Automatic annotation (TrEMBL):
This is Acetyltransf_1 domain-containing protein. InterPro entries: Acyl_CoA_acyltransferase (IPR016181), GNAT_dom (IPR000182), N-term/lysine_N-AcTrnsfr (IPR051556). Residues 101-273 form the N-acetyltransferase domain. One of its GO terms (molecular function) is N-acetyltransferase activity. The lineage of its organism: Eukaryota, Viridiplantae, Streptophyta, Embryophyta, Tracheophyta. GO terms for cellular component: NatA complex. It holds the Pfam family Acetyltransf_1. It comes from Cephalotus follicularis. GO terms for biological process: mitotic sister chromatid cohesion.
Amino acid sequence: MIVSHFDMAHLLPCYPYVPKCVRTASSQRYTGTKSWSIASHRMSFKRKRSYLGCCCASFSTSSAKEVFLVDIDDKEKQFEYLVSENGWRVRRLFEETDEMRKVAYIQAEAFHTPVAFFDDLFFEFFKAEVLSGLIYKLRNSPPNRYVCLVAEPTIDASISQGKLVVGIVDVTVLRDEAVLQHLPSAEEYLYVSGLAVSKHYRRRKIASVLLKACDVLSVVWGFEYLVLRAHEDDLGARKLYSNAGYRVVSGDPHWMTSWIGRKRRLVMMKRSAS
């Protein structure tokens, strides 16, 4: 089952963005520009010396309590994992050649369309294209406009061989007017794409954990809506997204599928817990 439509490395213009505040359990407001350092994998608020505490093992969209702020004046606190659940945890992709190649392989494996002849060769071309797109997005997107999240085992038995990446999802800040008309009062939204799980680890709730990590990220970055696309005939993917709280708000015009001959895609959205 292909769980998501894969959007190759398209980038809309990055508009200036001042994220909304993150509300703590005591309803205090912290404003200012948030940053997520790629090198140290931490989140910080520049205006006030506050750091985002690590999320709990489970995240419920009915409450934002899993994301909280901790005031500290000592050593900067490292932030690494957004979600840890069902034996899997999700973090930001390390910008290392080996890990980026693992991500490209899993996405290419999930979205490559087999051909009758020279399939291995075409797969290598497609994998190279995926890797090139990933590198482009990482190098040209501000860290609070795009992130590639990866899932790994909570207990990695193959530490000596490096981190075991088992799933991936891309999250991008977008403002497509055709989508925004379905999102009351929103100026931008988080677009979820490229969701893929290694074929050796499917049907183990990894995709669900990745979607929960996107929920947490929407709270951290201060976005009210998450949006994704799914093929109309991919009932497995649609069920996955529906269980995660997404609902269909629109779809490709029918003439695009009848005249052009491509599969019809549905736009699905959910409201963040923020």
